[in-house]
Design brief:
By secondary structure, the protein is of the alpha+beta class.
């Protein structure tokens, strides 16, 4: 491992003041540049020698990217801090799983520097925010030289540390639709120690309709090469009479998403351990989300 106290590589550093200026800079440097927002992941990658960008484009001075707008759904700008999401009363009320994921992302010091969009763009299979965002049907808003495009977050990740972003494209915000009234959600995580990256994590969102679960979403982290939705588990839960036998069956289906891998860094544990952990997390998260949801679509 390289020296984690210094940046060994030389690079040019720019602080654009507009999105257009940032896009132009990124287009000029191509794959030789990297975008800096919070830097909690990027700078570690640079210090350990895993990457050596020749250009850093620091987007923290672009006012349009700082905003978190909750008037219609939730829009999280590219430089919105994890800590801001964690402490938002609206997020805690409407998007509880996301508030919980933000609150478990690293230490307080990291959350005061890191950004939600940066956590997403790192494309780590073990990242905490993606599963919580996935259960709320989040969308990635991307801008580049060819204009703006919107990508569902479940299509944003293409592999470990790989996304659909082109060399000159910027994730400007993540947008979550307004959740249906009465939706309940939960996020849970297993790590080696507090503030560690996840060995496994899971998020669940659902509504109650009498004794039935509706609008079911289950997302998992550190079980595959990207964060994923467990659609088989969702389908098994959707519209079925709620019971402990059902939850046991659904959590077993979710545990089957764990992919065998010789790459220890995927989950830093055996597939068998992660299967057991996912089963427990999903079972508990479904129960908590069910308790948090209100019946018949009434607000909690």
């Amino acid at each position: 491992m390289g020296n984690t106290r210094i940046l060994a590589c030389e690079f040019d550093y720019f602080q654009p003041r507009t999105i257009e200026e940032a896009i132009n800079l990124m287009a000029e440097c191509g794959d030789k540049g990297s975008v800096l927002a919070g830097g909690t992941d990027l700078l570690v990658q640079m210090k350990t020698g895993r990457i050596a960008p020749e250009v850093l484009v620091d987007i923290r001075r672009i006012p349009d990217l700082e905003r978190m707008n909750g008037q219609d759904g939730l829009s999280i700008g590219a430089t919105t801090l994890v800590r801001s999401v964690e402490r938002s009363a609206r997020v805690a009320w409407k998007y509880t799983a996301l508030a919980e994921a933000a609150g478990q992302l690293g230490s307080v010091q990291i959350r005061n520097m890191a950004t939600i969009c940066g956590n997403v763009c790192s494309a780590s299979p073990a990242a905490d925010s993606p599963p919580a965002l996935l259960v709320f049907d989040a969308q990635a808003w991307i801008i580049g030289p060819s204009g703006e495009r919107v990508v569902p977050l479940d299509r944003f990740f293409v592999g470990p540390r790989k996304t659909v972003l082109g060399p000159a494209e910027l994730l400007t915000r993540i947008v979550l639709p307004d959740p249906a009234p009465g939706l309940g959600s939960a996020f849970m995580k297993v790590g080696r120690v507090a503030a560690d990256i996840a060995t496994v994590n899971a998020a669940v969102a659902l509504k109650r309709d009498g004794g039935y679960a509706r609008s079911c979403r289950i997302a998992l982290g550190s079980v595959a090469t990207t964060p994923i939705r467990s659609r088989r588990a969702e389908e098994a839960l959707e519209g079925q009479p709620y019971s402990m036998d059902l939850i046991e069956h659904v959590s077993t289906l979710a545990s089957m998403e764990v992919q065998p891998s010789k790459r220890a860094r995927l989950g830093r544990s055996t597939p068998e351990y992660r299967q057991g952990a996912i089963k427990s997390l999903v079972r508990d998260a479904i129960q908590v989300a069910w308790e948090r949801a209100s019946d018949g679509g009434r607000e909690r």
